[in-house]
Amino acid sequence: MTESFHRSGEYENPYEGQQQAPVNPEWPPPPAYTPAPAPKKRNRGTVALLAAVAIVAAAIGGGTAYGIQELTGNDTVAASSTSTNVVPSSQKGTVAGVAKAVSPSIVEISADSNAGSSTGSGVIITSGGEIVTNNHVVSGASQIKVTTNDGKSYSAKVVGTDSKKDLALIKLENASGLKAATLGDSSGLQVGDQVVAIGSPEGLSGTVTSGIISALDRDVTVPTDEDQGQQQSPQGDGWPFEFGGRQFNGDTGSDTTTYKALQTDASLNPGNSGGALIDMNGNIIGINSAMYSPAGAASSSSDAGSVGLGFAIPVNTVKADLAKLRAGATD
Known about the structure:
It is a single chain. The protein is of the alpha+beta class and 331 residues long. Helix content is 17%, strand content 29%. The chain has 6 helices and 14 strands. The protein has helices spanning 44-61, 65-72, 95-102, 135-138, 226-230, 315-326, and strands spanning 106-113, 116-124, 130-133, 143-147, 153-162, 167-172, 194-199, 207-223, 241-243, 246-248, 256-264, 276-279, 284-291, 310-314. The longest helix is centred in the first third of the chain and has 18 residues, at 44-61.
């Protein structure tokens, strides 16, 4: 059925089925269509200014440190907070990801002096070849040879040293296009944070170990005398240091300095000195500087090697010292 019906009381249209009344011709016509004005052409200077502001904002926000370094020259250090992700997102938080991202920025250092020769590690901080390492690695050196992760060899010169902080800055000769590490922020570190160490223990370049931050603000005492720093005991214990009134890995001598260090259980051995301690985002958060080995206290081979007591100079100490080192300090 197609019929419709109305319930009682419902309103019925009296005009239903009738012709609609015509439109009154005296009514005013609708307003004429006026197209919207075309947008004004933006001034090129304004566009350039906005682009510049965007770049600055991105820089402040973090995550663009390496790009800024490349734009401003190879003497600009890539620095950021620990929130910057140097590691690709697909490998974020993995030791393998950190190793792949940061290993190209870690070098092996061989230094010859009147006291003998020493092997250590260093961290590339500019693409032009500035490298941070420990003072005791290059102290008194007459010749320095640096080998990068890809096997290339360079000669290097000492730019500045700070024995009180056990830091040194060296510069490669005729180097360019190197991958600089990103210096993070050590102020926010907490006990238990995961870390990775990369260096050249016993000349085994590119060695990667991992662990955690075991303690903060350890008062570690190391020698500042270059001859003492270059000495190696028969057991190969490496760099001597003092902690809690006790001396480890040999005699620290009478000329010493004390600094606040990060303690880590990431395996460190002789040759790791000057290498990198890295957070899981790939930022450098410390420069490895001392380790404890019980080999000097016992002849048993079961006691040799790292026992998970390593120390690193916080990266904020390094960043605060860079201007002084670049100026040629010899303290």
